[in-house]
Specification:
CATH superfamily of the largest domain: Efflux pump adaptor protein, beta barrel domain
Radius of gyration: 65 Å
Shape: rod-shaped
């Protein structure tokens, strides 16, 4: 390897130049421009602070714009299906968790006894209705008959009174004729006495005397006939009076016709009431026959079925439950401090744990008391050991129409509702 050439030292021909001292570090630091004092840094810092403030305000506004709770669940109508009659179950048409339509026959009870009772009630009703119709027809007939009877008996009374007047007049005429006959008889008898004296003296002929005797006998016979006529006329008066008494009795009886009509009408009303009672028995028998088929009251899912074929059931015995999934809502138990700005109609987002979906709805109503008041043993704060505990108030939230058409929401599911009190 070649060695480098050595340079001969240069001889100094004069005084060496004086070198300038280097600037110190502190002096150099103070003389350089500061990065934090630059206008760009200050603008960036300001923008950063503003951005942080805006983000903080937005976060605070978002956090305070809703009220949420995890103490909430889906609620719905749980319809209890029970028997309304006593009977023997002969058929079961559904299983647990089966969807049924309203009116679907769920359970069938043996209808034989109820069919017999229905047929008997139907026959009794037809018989009672026929009796009521007959009684109803007899009312106007009785009314007409009794009215006619009153008129006839009243005419009989008038005729009987007139008959009495005629009989009395005839009796008076007969008495007058009797008096006339008696007067003529007295004259004839006196003439006979005189003619007897004359014939004894032979002042008159025997023929004249015989004529006087015949006249006296005829006059006596006339008196007897007149007396008989008078007695007959008196009997006619008595008979006429008897007919009047009978006619008046018939008239008084006929005057009871309105009462008889009332009695007939009352009997018709009683027959009609009996028919109505039989109709009610028939309707009840028909209902009992219909109750042998237990039907679903609403659309829903069959749950908690306890009945089996061959079981004897009694009225009121629960057979199963039908959960109506077409009408469900959310019951959210909010703290009382969360209700300050909560109002009916505010929008709600509901997160469901079961399917992870978010449903939408609105606040429907707030319960009238706290949940503790509805418990089996409500707290008693008058014991002197009172400790203030924030209470929870049930809030009912309804879903938007059509939200649960797929029936995924079931009563009892846990949800987390978020009520937007401000947007």
């Amino acid at each position: 390897m070649a060695q480098s050439a050595q340079v001969p030292p240069v001889e100094s021909t004069g005084p060496e130049p004086v070198s300038k001292p280097l600037p110190s570090t502190e002096k150099d630091f103070h003389t350089r421009p500061s990065r934090t004092g630059s206008s760009g840094f200050r603008i960036g810092l300001t923008i950063g602070i503003v951005v942080l403030l805006v983000v903080g305000i937005l976060v605070i506004r978002y956090v305070t714009s809703y009220e949420s709770t995890d103490d909430a669940q889906v609620d719905g109508h749980v319809n209890s299906v029970s028997a309304r009659i006593t009977g023997h179950v002969i058929k079961l048409n559904v299983d647990d968790n089966q969807y049924v339509q309203a009116g679907t026959v769920l359970v069938e009870i043996d209808p034989t006894d109820y069919q017999v009772a229905y047929d008997r009630a139907k026959a009794d009703y037809q018989d009672a209705r026929a009796a009521a119709e007959a009684a109803g027809v007899s009312v106007p007939v009785t009314d007409v008959n009794t009215s006619s009877q009153v008129s006839v008996t009243q005419a009989d009374v008038t005729s009987a009174r007139a008959g009495i007047q005629v009989a009395l007049q005839q009796f008076e005429a007969a008495k007058a004729q009797l008096q006339e006959a008696e007067a003529n008889n007295v004259k004839a008898q006196n003439d006979l006495v005189r003619y007897k004296q004359l014939v004894d003296k032979q002042e008159i002929s025997q023929q004249q005397y015989d004529q006087a005797v015949a006249a006296a006998k005829a006059s006596a016979a006339t008196v007897e006939a007149a007396r008989a006529s008078a007695d007959a006329a008196q009997q006619q008066v008595t008979q006429a009076q008897g007919r009047l008494v009978q006619a008046e009795a018939n008239w008084r009886y006929a005057n009871t016709a309105p009462k008889q009509v009332q009695i007939t009408r009352a009997r018709a009303d009683a027959a009609l009431a009996e028919a109505q009672q039989k109709k009610a028995d028939l309707d009840q028998a028909q209902l009992n026959l219909q109750y042998t088929k237990v039907v679903a009251p609403v659309n829903g899912i069959v749950s908690n079925r306890t009945v089996e074929v061959g079981q004897n059931v009694s009225p009121g015995q629960e057979l199963m439950k039908v959960i109506n999934l077409d009408e469900v809502w959310i019951t959210a138990n909010y703290k009382e401090t969360q209700l300050r700005n909560m109002k009916v109609g505010q929008p709600v987002d509901i997160e469901v744990d079961a399917n992870g979906r978010t449903y939408h709805g609105k606040v429907d109503s707030v319960a009238g008391a706290s949940g503790a008041r509805f418990s089996l043993l409500p707290p008693e704060n008058a014991t002197g050991n009172y400790v203030k505990v924030v209470q929870r108030i049930p809030v009912k939230i309804v879903l938007d129409p059509g939200s649960n058409n797929d029936h995924q929401l079931r009563p009892g599911m846990s949800v987390e509702p978020k009520v937007w009190i401000r947007r």
